[in-house]
Amino acid sequence: MNNAIEICGLSKSYGSVNALREVSLTVGEGELFGLIGPDGAGKTTLFRILATLLVADSGTATVCGYDVVTDYKRLRQLVGYMPGRFSLYQDLSVEENLSFYASIFGVTLEENYDLVAPIYRQIEPFRTRRAGMLSGGMKQKLALCCALIHKPQILYLDEPTTGVDVVSRAELWDMLSMLREQGITIVASTPYMDEGSRCVRIALMSEGRILEVCQPPDNLEEYFIERMRGV
């Protein structure tokens, strides 16, 4: 398996706070990879660097063979990013949000409908409803559609199910498994151990460090707690 993402020695500080401490990591093409850790572990900072929205203090990272700093314009066409907080336009309708994000990448909903159709069909009955009036689960499905509208090779999801009901959480992870089957490389962060168990591999993170990269064990929650105690 070739690597879609290669990270070597990434560090990032905000003043006296070390958000990332020499993080090294690889993610294979077509892998569903999980970042597991509590708030403050450095997950969001790592996503923002990989999405070319933030520059690391030191270290390197390549995505699809492109450097995240020097090749950022090319990379933004190849990745989809769904941040932790709902960041779509609350006053625009479902349909208007999708059309807007498609236009940014020079595509249309019709062009890539086959990719987003299984997700979009669930919110299509509400296509004229303002995004701010959607339920938590529906908002996340809309955000996922917007992240996929340009058919990215890599998909980043930063705690995509936080604040979402149990049924919607399960539905979203079913969708991620389906997207992986279509060849999309997915990196998702989550504080929920049951979601981490659905990944091919996971990285356990704490205080800006990678504690371990492994296949999720059956008793992931107990395993993670023991690793945290050993830090």
In short:
With 231 residues, this protein is an alpha/beta fold. It is 33% helix and 28% strand. It has a domain at 87-152.
Protein topology:
Blueprint: E1 3-14, E2 17-28, E3 32-36, H1 43-50, E4 58-63, E5 66-67, H2 72-75, E6 79-82, H3 94-104, H4 113-123, H5 136-148, E7 154-158, H6 166-181, E8 185-190, H7 193-196, E9 201-206, E10 209-214, H8 220-229
Parallel strand pairs: 3-8, 3-9, 6-7, 7-8
Antiparallel strand pairs: 1-2, 1-4, 4-5, 9-10
Can you put this structure into words, describing what you see?
This protein is an alpha/beta fold and 231 residues long. It has a domain at 87-152. 33% of the residues lie in helices and 28% in strands. It has eight helices and ten strands. The strands form two sheets. It has a six-stranded mixed β-sheet, with helices on both faces. α3 (94-104) packs parallel to α5. The longest helix is centred in the C-terminal third of the chain and has 16 residues, at 166-181.
Low-confidence stretches: none
What is the approximate shape?
globular
Percent strand equals 25-35%
Distance between the termini: 31 Å
